[in-house]
């Protein structure tokens, strides 16, 4: 797995802004964020605040309209898809239909970054050592030979994680990784991600809607609201009662045991500013 040079961030943005065509306002505006090797960070914010768009910009899938994104010191505007894939992998919200392909074969396609398209197509059996290791790490080896489209939503979620791990990039981005999972499997997924990240020394950034789980899992949180980064830092220090009230309209606090204690809904007291 390629590693970032000592002291170099895995990804860093500079006054990054992005607007979808015909959108009246920028979806992400003036964002500065840096992710270093080994970090475990959650991006949180209300619906429509720009979380997934921010993640796609960090992954190099979208290019900023203003400012820049650098992956290990290289501007994403200058990078090809394969070079970008060596530095960062994104686990998307949805896995599109893949009729007639097994879990093992799909996960093997994560070889793209190291082998290119033709190399990937020449090794589709999914029986190589690296692919098997990723199947095991994500806990999907038991149904490795089943068709992907026959799986439940939660099982497909784990397959997406195995596919992301197979890319072997030092930065792992997860877009709502807990969707379609019950509470038991939500905890299990986060434990799996933490274990793999620690074992492989990955930087991990996850968009999470589940505030209580973000508090338990993340060492750092990036809070976005209306496209602006409104807070960034240690979870227990950032998620103050005032911020939870302004951004999430909750009367709540983070306890010493790293849990979220919710008292109730707060009255809207104006928008959080960037």
From TrEMBL:
The keyword Translocase applies. It comes from Corynebacterium anserum. It holds the Pfam family ABC_tran. Keywords: ATP-binding, Nucleotide-binding, Translocase, Transport. InterPro entries: AAA+_ATPase, ABC_transporter-like_ATP-bd, ABC_transporter-like_CS, P-loop_NTPase. The lineage of its organism: Bacteria, Bacillati, Actinomycetota, Actinomycetes, Mycobacteriales. Residues 11-251 form the ABC transporter domain. This is ATP-binding cassette domain-containing protein. GO terms for molecular function: ATP binding; ATP hydrolysis activity. The keyword Nucleotide-binding applies.
């Amino acid at each position: 797995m390629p590693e970032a040079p000592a002291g170099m961030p895995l990804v860093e943005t500079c006054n990054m802004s992005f607007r979808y065509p015909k959108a009246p306002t920028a979806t992400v505006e003036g964002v500065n964020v840096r992710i270093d090797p080994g970090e475990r960070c959650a991006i949180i914010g209300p619906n429509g605040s720009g979380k997934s768009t921010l993640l796609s910009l960090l992954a190099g899938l979208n290019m900023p309209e203003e400012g820049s994104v650098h992956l290990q010191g290289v501007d994403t505007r200058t990078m090809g898809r394969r070079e970008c894939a060596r530095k960062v992998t994104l686990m998307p919200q949805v896995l599109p239909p893949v009729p007639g392909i097994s879990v093992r074969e799909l996960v093997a396609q994560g070889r793209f970054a190291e082998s290119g398209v033709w190399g990937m197509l020449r090794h589709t059996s999914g029986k190589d050592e690296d692919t098997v290791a990723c199947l095991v790490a994500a806990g999907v080896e038991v149904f490795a030979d089943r068709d992907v489209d026959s799986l439940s939503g939660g099982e497909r979620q784990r397959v997406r994680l195995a596919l992301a791990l197979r890319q072997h990039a030092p930065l792992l981005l997860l877009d709502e990784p807990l969707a379609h999972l019950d509470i038991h499997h939500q905890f299990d997924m986060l434990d799996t991600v933490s274990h793999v990240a620690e074992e492989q020394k990955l930087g991990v950034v996850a968009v999470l809607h589940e505030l209580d789980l973000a508090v338990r899992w993340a060492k750092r949180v990036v809070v976005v609201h209306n496209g602006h980064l409104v807070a960034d830092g240690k979870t227990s220090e950032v998620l103050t009662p005032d911020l939870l009230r302004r951004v999430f309209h909750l009367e709540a606090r983070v306890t010493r045991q790293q849990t979220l204690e919710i008292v109730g809904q707060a009255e809207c007291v104006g928008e959080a500013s960037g």
